[in-house]
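so my prof wants the structure for this chain in the tokens format not the other one, which i didnt know existed until like an hour ago. anyway here's the sequence
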Amino acid sequence: MTKTIDIRQSPFKQFSVEKSIALRDPILILEDGEEIRALLIQICKTLGIAVEGYANGKQALEAARKNRYSAFIVDLETPFMKGQDFIREIKSFLEDPIILVQTGNNQPSTIIEVMKLGVLDYLIKPIDIQVFGHCMKRIVEYTQKKAVEKALHEETETRLRAQLDWILYKQSWLSDLEKTVDISKVTLNNIKQTFLSGGGFGAIVSLIEILETSAKFEGENCVLPKEIAHLLFQNNQNVHDTLECLEKSMNILNRDISNQKNATNLSDLFDLIQLTIENANEKMSDLLTEKSLSISFHKSLQSNAVQIEVDKDSIQLILEELIVNAVKYSRKNSKIFIYDKIQNGMLNLSVKNEFDPNAIPGVPREKEILVKQPFYRLTGFVYESLPMETFFSGLGLTIVDYVARKHSGIFQISNILDHSVSEIPVETVLASLSLPLKY
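here's what i got, hopefully its the right format
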């Protein structure tokens, strides 16, 4: 028999929380006991959670079909429909609903049967108020986690769908393009910006379409608009560079890194890092001067006794990519730091740079996974086709992550609050490459 709980008694008065917690949608409570239902509703309201209560499964099911709920709290023994049947019904039309069961039935067979239905938790009556409050907090945390995962999934799908839509649109546009194209300064400027952002292939196709309508044939000769021809010639080297980057990307993805690794002293690896920085300073001197940037390696480890097993060629390429990435997105008049640290048997190489939060978001927590996906961009095109650019545009961090995993290591990139820059903490981007040491 279910024990009656009097909400006027002291346990509820003793229940308190530091601050209210909230869900976007209300919670639905299915409980036929009036006093218990009132108690659970009161606790939810104290926590700042919107809630609706129903006495029988039929009413609750109708509400679930009409409205949106963040979670369901279900008693197993309810009129018109058992709790198990209610759970099965809502699972037939809701995707992965969050369900908390509370019941006086503590038989192991019943508990196993209900848990197999995919419920979040199972509480035995009489309900402990503190335990129930913590369960509500757990539901909120789980709901927030699901919302973030769903947002990431939807954003990834949207990005891939947009790429496919662009390809289909481009095919249609190339076949159905009208023969009258506005050769205005705006159009030409947009194409020029496309060139500068590394998208030369599509722009060349666009230019050729324009030339088909604007070229004039005089006998054996063809007269082209000078401005369009100049843009076409200007982009030729960019296309060659892009193809070369694509070839390098394919080479490293097809490279047998496992068989190319060799034991190397840390001092030799540090020499490689220093050499990479010197090459960056030389090859990107114009951009570094324009943005007033400096790159420096703060080496803290001196011992030659520790070794690391790496494919030095692959490591050098991804170090170049991390430096290029930092240079692209660093704010003006700032410094790019590279430093090392040994922790838990791993060598951590970190590249840190400041960014202008008014221009770019850095790498927010919810984007950390996405930025390593192929062709994902947090911002528009910035300083593409740099002299030291190695990989095909949109694949840089993907390949860094790939090479790290091929070394049984980890690559992470995210925003951090840096307290070493000034008295006021500054948000910076930290790209960390962790590689296992060889003892």
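also thought this was worth mentioning. The radius of gyration is 31 Å.
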